[in-house]
Write a structure and sequence with these properties.
With 261 residues, this protein is of the alpha+beta class. The chain has helices spanning 4-20, 27-30, 36-52, 67-73, 124-130, 152-157, 206-217; strands at residues 57-63, 79-84, 88-90, 94-95, 104-113, 131-141, 162-167, 183-188, 191-197, 228-233, 238-239, 245-249, 255-260. A hairpin with a 5-residue loop joins strand 12 and strand 13 (255-260).
């Protein structure tokens, strides 16, 4: 474990990198004793810096929900980060590519709550009962930490690589479709790059949400009504470059588009 002073120093370094749109050397190379608990402490301080700057938390993201990504990172459970108000875009938006150091995109389902959700004994049924609607979404990944050799400890410290999200237009009730069978076709400049089905998210996307509620309960945090929760990706990350047109077809849940300039 690192000291509280080291947590603050790392969080301030990452906050400065966020402001400067830059990257810093890998944390685990400089702090070999750094653990997951340190990472969440750093993330919390970083989030507080953004709150102090006038931003507002509007939700949370859940990451590493697929078996493939868990195997790649050597962990057995997901991770999480916070979503701020300035990270949310709508389908059809033109998005400035240069505001991030690097851009990758994943397809996800987002759950919007109509009432609070809390652990430590939150279940799938609790998630469905607390959800106002489900909407298709894209997560924009960004890293402030050099990517080569990066570990889960680096990623969590960096707000679980949360850069932004694009929200679709079609809102559906949790019982309108089988949430395990939502398809996605992800296209870049007219070419199909990735495909997936939502069951890849912990067998059923609401599972990511109750995992998050139970995890946050360890810190006395409750998911509040109105929060938007990114449940986890069911495609691999796709690199996005300046000028790219992105289309994600979610079948019965509609299409999301965005253009990076």
């Amino acid at each position: 474990m690192l000291s509280p002073e080291q947590h603050i120093a790392i969080a301030d370094e990452l906050y400065a990198a966020d402001v400067a749109k830059s990257m810093v050397p890998r944390l685990t190379a400089r702090y070999p004793d750094m653990e997951v608990a340190d990472s969440y402490a750093v993330q919390g301080i970083w989030a507080q810096r953004r709150l102090e700057a006038g931003h507002k938390i509007v939700g949370h993201k859940i990451g590493l929900t697929s078996k493939v990504m868990q195997l790649a990172t050597g962990i057995t459970e997901p991770d999480y980060g916070v979503i701020f108000d300035d990270m949310v875009y709508r389908s059809g938006d033109t998005i400035e590519h240069g505001q991030w150091s690097n851009v990758r995109i994943e397809v996800e389902l987002a759950f919007v709550l109509k009432k609070p959700l809390s652990g430590p004994n939150c279940t799938l049924e609790d998630v469905l009962d607390a959800t106002d609607y489900v909407v298709p979404a894209l997560e924009i990944l960004n890293s402030h930490i050099e990517m080569e050799g990066r570990t889960i400890v680096d990623t969590i410290s960096d707000n679980a690589a949360m850069g932004g999200m694009v929200v679709g237009d079609k809102r559906v009730a949790v019982d309108e479709f089988d949430l395990r069978w939502i398809p996605a076709i992800l296209m870049r400049n007219g070419d199909v790059e990735e495909t997936g089905v939502s069951a890849g998210v912990l067998n059923n996307p609401p599972a990511g949400v109750f995992w998050l509620a139970n995890k946050l309960a360890q810190h006395g945090t409750v998911l509040e009504a109105g929060e938007i929760l990114l449940a986890g990706s069911f495609t691999k990350p796709m690199w996005v470059h300046k000028g790219d047109e992105i289309v994600a077809d979610f079948g019965p849940l509609g299409v999301i588009t965005c253009h990076f300039v």
